[in-house]
């Protein structure tokens, strides 16, 4: 008899737990954003680039109360000084976003960037489609329900030439839900 009661209690707890998790899933909606990126080159790359510009799309899944999982894709161009050819990348990143308050958060992403230009023979980038390790830490602010400002440092590491394409910049984004 004790075993039957124990099995019923465990079964009831399991059903309530699954039901609570299903309720949580209903409330959790993915937030999408698209943004404009602009920055100032840092380190080696500042010798030939004066501006970094691009755009990105991002999705955020709220995994826990204050923690979200992010995935993003974008286009980032290290624009050359004096009309030369820039160095463009397509970053694909995964990361985490932690909300300290409803208005302030930190984020960190890492992944790969694909070289989107042609090899110009000077070692500034690989051939089209080459991929490089990328990381992006940042501090952000929710300025309103739909707008966000992220101050970030983005770094693309090219192992074959031991060079890093880095920038300090800002991403201004519009956030929305599809439901």
Automatic annotation (TrEMBL):
<dbReference type="InterPro" id="IPR027385">
    <property type="entry name" value="Beta-barrel_OMP"/>
</dbReference>
<keyword id="KW-0732">Signal</keyword>
<dbReference type="Pfam" id="PF13505">
    <property type="entry name" value="OMP_b-brl"/>
</dbReference>
<feature type="domain" description="Outer membrane protein beta-barrel">
    <location>
        <begin position="12"/>
        <end position="176"/>
    </location>
</feature>
<protein>
    <recommendedName>
        <fullName>Outer membrane protein beta-barrel domain-containing protein</fullName>
    </recommendedName>
</protein>
């Amino acid at each position: 008899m004790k075993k039957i009661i124990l099995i019923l209690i465990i079964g009831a707890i399991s059903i309530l737990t699954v039901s609570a998790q299903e309720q949580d899933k209903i409330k959790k909606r993915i937030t999408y954003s698209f943004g404009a990126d602009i920055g100032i080159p840092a380190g080696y790359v500042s010798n030939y680039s004066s501006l970094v510009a691009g755009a990105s799309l991002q999705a955020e899944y709220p995994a826990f109360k204050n923690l979200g999982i992010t995935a993003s894709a974008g286009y980032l161009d290290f624009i050359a000084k004096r009309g030369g050819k820039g160095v463009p990348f397509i970053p694909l990143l995964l990361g985490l976003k932690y909300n300290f308050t409803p208005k302030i958060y930190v984020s960190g992403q890492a992944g790969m960037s694909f070289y989107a230009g042609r090899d110009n023979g000077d070692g500034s980038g690989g051939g089209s489609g080459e991929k490089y390790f990328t990381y992006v830490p940042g501090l952000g602010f929710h300025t309103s329900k739909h707008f966000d400002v992220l101050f970030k440092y983005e770094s693309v590491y090219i192992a074959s030439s031991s060079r890093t394409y880095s920038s300090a910049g800002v991403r201004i984004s519009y956030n929305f839900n599809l439901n």
